[in-house]
Design a protein that fits this description.
Helix content: 40-55%
GO molecular function: calcium ion binding; mannosyl-oligosaccharide 1,2-alpha-mannosidase activity
Pfam family, one: Glyco_hydro_47
InterPro entries: 6hp_glycosidase-like_sf, Glyco_hydro_47, Glycosyl_Hydrolase_47, Seven-hairpin_glycosidases
Number of strands: 18
Radius of gyration: 28 Å
Bound molecules: 1-deoxymannojirimycin
CATH architecture: Alpha/alpha barrel
Keywords: Calcium, Disulfide bond, Glycosidase, Hydrolase, Membrane, Metal-binding, Transmembrane, Transmembrane helix
Family: Belongs to the glycosyl hydrolase 47 family.
Length: 589
C-alpha cells in the first residue's frame, strides 16, 4: 500500500528537480529583457482584463458566480443544473405551453358546494345548515391569476348574491380562516380592491372573532357562524391543535391592515404570545395545546398533521411586515429550526435520504414520559423543504436580496444549514414519487434497523408504505388526495435556484395527476393507492387542488414576475397576500 506521506514528498522533490536546473523561456526573458512572446502574453492579459471589466459592468453577477464555482462553495451550490437563462430584466421566464396546460386542467373543474364529488358530480356541504362556499372561494384567486374572466365573473356573482355566513352549524376555525377568509382577502387584492370581497371577509372575521373568548385566549377549534360562539371539538375535548391555533395570523393581520381595526391583529398576536410563553425546553411544539390553560399537553411532536403550519407560519407567513420590524418571529423561527435539526432531521439507512421523524410520547407506570423517535413522514411535511430554502434566504441571509441561487457566503451558518436541509428534503419528497403512478403516498415510513427488514426484502430500500400488502385493500397511508406540498416546495425551489430540475419534476407530477386522478365525469379524484395502476378512485376532490396544487404548478411554469417572493406571502392554503408595512405596533417582543 502506498504511503501518502512518501508520495507527497516524492512529488515535491520531482517538482523541485525539474524546475531548478533548466531555466524556462519566461525566466530567461525576465533576466534578459522582454521577448516578443512575453510582450504578446502581456497584451493578451491586458485584453482579457479589459473584457472582464466590461462583462462586470454589464452584469456583476456573472463574474461573482464564476468565482463562486471556481472556488467551489459547498457541494449543494454545485449540483444545480443551469435553468433557463435569467432574462435581461432579471426574471426566470415562463414555460408557456406547460403553464397553459395547467390552466386547461383548472378550467375543466366545476364550481361546487363546500366539497365536490367528481364521480357522482355532486356537491356537499360541511354543515347541514348549508355551505359557505369552500370550493368556489378557495378557487377565485387562481381564476384571477390565470385570467379566467368568465369563471371569475360566475364566482363573483355567486359571492355577491348567494354566499351567506348566517349558518347555524359548526365550522372548523382554521379551515374556514385559511380557505374562506384567506381566499376572500386574496381575491380582494388580486381584483384590485373589489369591495364585495373585503365586505364578505370582514363579515366572516367578525363572526369568527368569538373563538378567542376562551380562558387562555387560544381560539376554540370550531365556530358556530350564526350564533357567534366558539365550540369545542368533541373528539378532543379541551384541546386545540397547535398548527390550527397558530395559523390564523396572516389573514387576521392583513384584515386589520386593510380596515384599520386592530382587533383582528391583537387577537391573533395574543395567540403567539401564549405560544411563546408555553415554549417547551427542547424548542419543539407538541401537536395539542390546552385551550383552558394555554400550554402544551403531552402529545406527538411532528411536522406533519396538526404540527405543520405552526412552523410554516413562523417564517415568511408571519412576515406580512417588512424585514426586521417584528424580530420576535424571526427569533421563534430560528429557535424552532435549530430544534428541528437537533431532534427530528434524520437520514435513511441505505441511501442517506434526509427526512423528518416524529416523536411519540410513551408514559410508564409511574407517569414518567419518554419519547420514541418514529421514522414516519406525512406528505404534508413536504412543504418544509421549500420553506427552509426560503427561510435561508430571509432570516439566514447576510445580504438582501441574495443571488439566485444564493451563494454560500451570502448566508449565515444557520442559513447554510437550512438551505442544505431544504434542498435535501425537496429531493426526498421528489423521490417518494417513485411509485407506479408517479404520485407520492399520504404517509411514508423510512426503514430503520429495528424493522427487521433485510436488504433482500421486496420493500424499497429506504422507505415503504406501511400496511400495504399485495391483494389487500390499501391502507390509508397509500392514498394521494391531490395534495400540494411537494409542488409547493418545487415552486419555491425553482424560484430560489432557477434549476430546471424542479420544473421537470413538477411537470412529471402534473402529468401523473392528469393520467391517474382525472375522471371522465369531470374534475379530479383522490386515488386510494399510488402503487396501483389503473388507479382506483374515491369520489372526493379536495378544494386545495384548485387553490394550491394547480396554482403552484401554474406559478412553477410562469415567469418569476408573477407574485414575486419578495413582495408576496402565501397563506397555508396558497392564497397570496401582499407584504405590507404595518402601522399597528403593540410592542410584542
Ligand atoms: C391545506 O389545506 C393546507 O395547506 C393546510 O395547511 C394543510 N394541508 C392542506 C393541503 O394538503
Amino acid at each position: 500500500m502506498t504511503d501518502p506521506q512518501t508520495t507527497k514528498k516524492k512529488k515535491g522533490q520531482l517538482r523541485r528537480a525539474s524546475a531548478d536546473p533548466v531555466k524556462t523561456q519566461q525566466q530567461k526573458g525576465r533576466e534578459g529583457g522582454i521577448t516578443l512572446q512575453g510582450a504578446f502574453k502581456y497584451i493578451s492579459a491586458l485584453v482579457l482584463l479589459a473584457a472582464l471589466v466590461l462583462v462586470h459592468k454589464h452584469d456583476p453577477t456573472i463574474l461573482t458566480n464564476l468565482l463562486d464555482s471556481w472556488i467551489g462553495f459547498s457541494e449543494h451550490w454545485e449540483t444545480f443544473q443551469p435553468g433557463p437563462a435569467i432574462d435581461n430584466i432579471g426574471r426566470l421566464p415562463a414555460d408557456v405551453p406547460k403553464r397553459d396546460a395547467v390552466v386547461s386542467a383548472f378550467k375543466r373543474d366545476a364550481m361546487g358546494d363546500d366539497e365536490y364529488h367528481p364521480i357522482s358530480q355532486k356537491g356537499s356541504n360541511l354543515s347541514q345548515a348549508g355551505g359557505i362556499g369552500y370550493t368556489v372561494i378557495d378557487s377565485i384567486d387562481t381564476m384571477l391569476l390565470m385570467s379566467l374572466d368568465q369563471e371569475h365573473a360566475r364566482a363573483r356573482s355567486w359571492v355577491a348574491n348567494k354566499l351567506s355566513f348566517e349558518r347555524d352549524g359548526n365550522f372548523n376555525t382554521f379551515e374556514t380562516t385559511i380557505r374562506v377568509l384567506g381566499g376572500l382577502l386574496s381575491a380582494y387584492h388580486l381584483s384590485s380592491g373589489d369591495p364585495i370581497y373585503l365586505e364578505k371577509a370582514t363579515e366572516l372575521a367578525n363572526r369568527i372573532l368569538p373563538v378567542f373568548e376562551s380562558p387562555s385566549g387560544l381560539p376554540h377549534p370550531m365556530i358556530n357562524l350564526a350564533a357567534g360562539t366558539g365550540v369545542q371539538n368533541s373528539d378532543f375535548t379541551g384541546l386545540v391543535s397547535t398548527a390550527e391555533v397558530s395559523t390564523l395570523q396572516l389573514e387576521f393581520k392583513y384584515l386589520s391592515h386593510l380596515t384599520g381595526n386592530d382587533v383582528y391583529w391583537k387577537s391573533v398576536e395574543n395567540v403567539m404570545r401564549i405560544i411563546k410563553a408555553a415554549r417547551l425546553p427542547h424548542g419543539l411544539a407538541s401537536i395539542f395545546m390546552s385551550v383552558e390553560e394555554g400550554r402544551y399537553v403531552t402529545s406527538a411532536i411532528r411536522l406533519g398533521s396538526r404540527g405543520d403550519s405552526f412552523y410554516e407560519y413562523l417564517l415568511f407567513k408571519l412576515k406580512p411586515v417588512k424585514n426586521g420590524s417584528e424580530p420576535v418571529y424571526s427569533d421563534m423561527y430560528d429557535d424552532a429550526m435549530a430544534a428541528i435539526h437537533n431532534h427530528l432531521i434524520q437520514k435513511s439507512t441505505k441511501s442517506k435520504m434526509t427526512y423528518t421523524a416524529e416523536l411519540i410520547p410513551e408514559e410508564d407506570a409511574s407517569g414518567e414520559v419518554s419519547w420514541r423517535l418514529t421514522p414516519k413522514q406525512d406528505h404534508l411535511v413536504c412543504f418544509l423543504g421549500g420553506s427552509l430554502m426560503l427561510g435561508a434566504t430571509r432570516t439566514g441571509a447576510l445580504i438582501h436580496p441574495v443571488s439566485v441561487p444564493p451563494r454560500h457566503k451570502e448566508l449565515t451558518a444557520s442559513g447554510q444549514r437550512d438551505w442544505k436541509t431544504g434542498v435535501e428534503l425537496v429531493k426526498t419528497c421528489m423521490d417518494t414519487h417513485d411509485t407506479a403512478t408517479g404520485l407520492s403516498p399520504e404517509i411514508v415510513h423510512f426503514r430503520i434497523a429495528s424493522d427487521g427488514m433485510d436488504s433482500n426484502s421486496m420493500a424499497p430500500a429506504d422507505w415503504y408504505i406501511k400496511g400495504a400488502r399485495p391483494g389487500a385493500f390499501p391502507p390509508y397511508d397509500a392514498r394521494y388526495m391531490l395534495r400540494p406540498e411537494t409542488v409547493e416546495s418545487l415552486f419555491l425551489a425553482y424560484r430560489l435556484t432557477g434549476d430546471q430540475l424542479y420544473r421537470d419534476h413538477g411537470w412529471n407530477i402534473f402529468q401523473s395527476i392528469e393520467k391517474h386522478c382525472r375522471v371522465p365525469t369531470g374534475g379530479y379524484a383522490t386515488i386510494v393507492n399510488v402503487d396501483e395502476v389503473p388507479a382506483r378512485h374515491e369520489d372526493k376532490m379536495e378544494t386545495f387542488l384548485m387553490s394550491e396544487t394547480l396554482k403552484y404548478l401554474y406559478l412553477l411554469f410562469d415567469d418569476s414576475d408573477t407574485l414575486p417572493l419578495d413582495r408576496y406571502v402565501f397563506n397555508t392554503e396558497a392564497h397570496p397576500l401582499p407584504i405590507f408595512e404595518p402601522t399597528i405596533r403593540t410592542g410584542f417582543s
